[in-house]
Amino acid sequence: MRRAAAFAAAALLGAATVCAAEAPPWLLEAAAAPDDPAWGDAPLAELLHDDAITFAADGKLTERERRVVRVRAAEGHDLAGSAMSYDSEADRIVSVKAWVVHPDGRRDEIRKDAIHDVAQVDAELYDAYRACVVSAGDLVEDGAVVGVEFVREGRTIFAQQGMSFQGSAPVVLARFTLTLPEGWDVRAQAFNCDAPIEPQRTGQTWTWEMRGLPWIPDEPLSPPRRARVPWLGVNCVPPPGAPVGKTTAALDSWSAWAAWLHGRGLLADVESPALRTQALQCVAGATTRRDSLARLARFVQNLRYTLVIADAAHGGGVTPHPACDVLAHGYGDCKDKASLLRTMMRVVGIEARLVSAFSGDADHIRPEWPSLTQFNHCIVAIAAPESLAGEPIVRTADGARWLLFDPTDPYTRLGDLPEDLQGSFVLVRGADGSLVRVPRRSATDNALTTRTDIVPDSTGAAQVHTRWLGRFQAGRELLATWRAESPRDHRARLEHEVARVAPGAVVASMQLSGDSTEIVAEDVDYSAPRWLRAVTGGRRSAPLVWLPLDLSFGDDQTPRTQPLLLDDAVRRDTVVIHLAQPIARGPLLEPVQFDSPAGRYTASAVSDGDAILIARAIELHRQTLPASTAQELRSFLRAIRTFEAQRLDLAAGW
Amino acid sequence: MLTAVPLPRRAMIAAVAVVVCAVAGPVRAWEKWEPVPAADLARTAPLSPDGADAEVLSWVSALRYAFNVRNSITVTLEQTMRVKVYSQRGRDAVAEVHLPVVAGTKIEDVEARVVHPDGRIQQVADADIFERALVKGHGRNAKETSFALPGLEPGCVAEYRWLELHDSDFPSDILELARDLPVADHLIRLTPLDTRIARATMRYAFFNTPVATFESPRLGVYEFHARDLAPTSDEPAAPPTLRQEPWVLFYYTTHTTDDGSRLYWREVSEVICGAWNKHTKGSPAIAARARELVAGAATATDSLAALYAFCQTQLRNTDNPDNGLTAKERADHADIDNAARTLTDGIAPPEGIAATFGALAEQLGFETRLAYLGDRSVAALDPDILSMALATSAAVAVRVGSAWKLFKPGESYTPFGLLPSNLEGELAAIALDKGAGFITAPIAPAEQSCECRGGYITVGSDGSSEGWMRADLSGHRGEEARGELEGLSASARTKWERDWFAARLPGATLDSLEIQNATNPGADLVLIARARWDAPAEAPGGVVHMPVSVFEAGRAPAFTASERRANIFLSSTGVVRDSVVIELPEGATVEAVPGEASGTLGKLGEWRVAMHREASLLTASHTHWRYNREALAADYPAIKAGYDAMHEADAVMVPVRLPQLRSSK
Hints:
The complex is a heterodimer of chains A (654) and B (665). Chain A has 654 residues and is of the alpha+beta class. In chain A, the strands form eight sheets. Chain A has a nine-stranded mixed sheet with strand order 1-6-5-9-3-2-11-14-13, with helices on one face. Chain A has an eight-stranded mixed sheet with strand order 26-27-25-24-31-34-33-32.
């Protein structure tokens, strides 16, 4: 993400220049690799990715990264540059050199005006992460080869490296070399590899190589790239008893990391009179322990999220700001909020721990590789006696019982967790902490249901009332959109949702209720002047659905090559059309049921005399499906679309 | 933020010989914060009649121009913002402040604080104000200063202020008056250069706000209050920012007499003419080439068309990624050269192609000039504003008979006879020998920019259907599509075309995709696909429904929100015309087909939808004319109703009874 942002910025930087120069042998050797028909339409091929890191016992490191790519199509021109990320507080880019080998054999060195230093702007208020970017888009043509070499020097306390052998481009040769101090060893764990990758060792240098990796095109709903490309997790292991300075080289288990992180977190466990007062004020009047928890949780949840990272190379990214400062500022990031909540709970006599997690992908954490680098988020574990019921509860290795809560998500209440954390591994910090798996609610628990009552009149207009009911994460979504959108924008979105079936529909009123963990309701009244549509012969037709399904499995036209990652989704919609004149009872349409590897869709339309009842349900299951199922899924979608595009043909004068 | 207007070098004529007789004093430190009135602290509802989650109660922009010791002018903008927060959403919208600045501009003296409803004040510490370079290196520096407002909650008032400074030899600045929140009061306090020292005088012009003038409460300082400003809009089809939101242009001129406008444009024109003459200088070789190119042309228009086609398609444009130029060739020809060299090399940037077109035309006896225009997507040119700040585009003006015609041969896909749609209807200043001649660029008739779509669909007895679909895009429609196809590989073009059809034929399976004339602006761009629709899962009574408008029926109406704040702004004129033939299977019956329906879209367009039946053939047609006009937000309800009516007519379904389907269901 950061890398992409850096490239996007670089694309705006304007034209760069070159001068004729000889290219280095490593580039020419890589450039000699022939094009491979298996690369298909890949706009770029990576001929060489050679990353060499030298790590010293005191945490100093030197990294030399070489990358050679061949541009194969127009879309590859802007990708032909390279970027090296660095932490400007701890690292410096020592040298950058880049060359182009043109298809006609000319060789140019890319001048310095193609090299820029770019802040990796993401969602933070401030951090020191930057990228040195070489832009080559203006300098290349199809068939050109670009080689870039970066050298970075820096210092870190983290003696672990995650090394991906691939981005998305096909790879001819990817090489990762690690040089360690005398007596040190490596412990490596490979992921997504068909066969073990054994390093070649020469003295204190270890080298891992992979060749001939296929293109991984970007396709919607694909699993994260980290789940598909081969990568290594490497620990630099000091000899027993060797001094490791301030580095984390000795940490080789989840429990060791849990203890180390716990220590960092304790640095922030600082209360102040104001904090104490605030904590006591929050729980004043609470009648139960759960009530106290909920009040404290909601208070911290309502603090604004603001991310400021300093001194990341020395653990600044995992060390919260002092809790009293976070309260005084009224803002903080995930670890700040978690830490504040932990301290406020301590003030009122409730034990809580910080928990490291990964937000964005429940399958991200690989338990086989104990490493801090796998986390990007921090939540809270609240000591949960057996008497405290509900979810999400985990037990650490020592048997302790914890209720998990994410104070960063402003909408998921105590008793639930954001969907992308459910089912994931998290690290409960503490001297006796451990990696545990978070329970996952069933799809049915998170169901979204709607009931729509439609009262048409003789002009074809209708008064419509829809009630949305969302449980747990579905309720969270209702709450989030209600809170995040202004009333004007919310109304506009609701009107847009039904515009296809009822052009000109106006939201007359909308109301949210049931702001609780378990269920949230939203009631919307519409006035739909064009709900019934003219059909030739004086007849009118009514749409089968009021809320069209916004269901997609990505691009339903282009052939699929990547697996599909589907999430749970359960939705049930009922439409009741209230009739002015009774009609015969019985089914108006044969009930349908469409099944696919993704899940099931059912629908029916019946008359009970005074009303037409149209019921629709869809249940999709969280799973990864092979690309070969894409055709089946498209047919499934097409069947749903075709079915829902039908209209009920109503007699004239109805 | 203050936007310094980049000026064409040619326009930076010696209008101001700045003699540094005085220098700017040191930038003053901030005075104490003004106390927040108790009423503002107690306020619980916004002043804005439209409601708001947060609003700017007061905003002071103090703009000061002063000579400096670097022999130029320092432009200082002091900004002070007081924002009231009414809700959690409002808090989240304003809680972080990011002040980006481009190279050459500095931000200094940032201060911020939060005043709670009980009067408690939280100051932002210096350590919590962060500055970082967004981009560094080789003259492309951009920075950002960021801070978060501490303890901000609904009910609080946030205040922050900062200085922006940049140097300029010839200042011309845009100050936007509105922002993303409603603004109750925006005070602009202006201190121009001392006219006793400067030989130039400051002028200003207000845009998109009722006629306004600065008052001068004290000598040398002028003030203006903009009040009750609505937040900036991001609604669909809203006018460009400078055409909709209120702003002020500040600039300096030496032409202060009543005759100033004429004198200014004469001076500008002289400079531009000189440059144009240099770049279009003729030679026997150019004359011979011109005669060769127009051989056989019967009229002046034919001759210009031949020259235009040559310049547009035979000279390789360095801006066009599809013409096979190497990176070196592009770099070697990045700058405008004289026409003789361009004709020899066959490569030029767009401006060089335009100059070559002018040179060739001159050699045939045409009088050519350079014209500067406003841009419909930016702002309009105004002859009363003695600045080139609003002249954001240029074209070649050629006198044909008694009229001037405008051409843009440097645009790779603008057909002969058209200007890019963003220049149509815009005022143009033609740089003549004795001054500027102003004309309005013509708006090409809608029929010249057609998205003409057709198809022949065969309905199977099971209710499935398939057929060949085709679209011919002419004029601006073809120009826009070619622009989107530019620089794409073959596979990416196919994907683009697939997406194009998929957006218009949702639910269809597409194959056999083909694009014709993707790079030839002299012919219509043609898109062809084969489309297939599955049989319906259910067809009660053996009836399937055929849409009256095959390409439009599955699309959402153009406007769906019931309320609107911004005017409705259509960027180009054109027509969408469909004619699709649907062949029904033997035995199919249609009770009746709808008659013709038509309507208007206010001043923005018209439409007509119809279906005809002849034996087993249904012919569905849809025509939608749209005009590059702007309608007032007040007219939105009527315009939306027009679009809804068109959508409803497009979506009418014709029930077709298929006997075989009936027996099988």
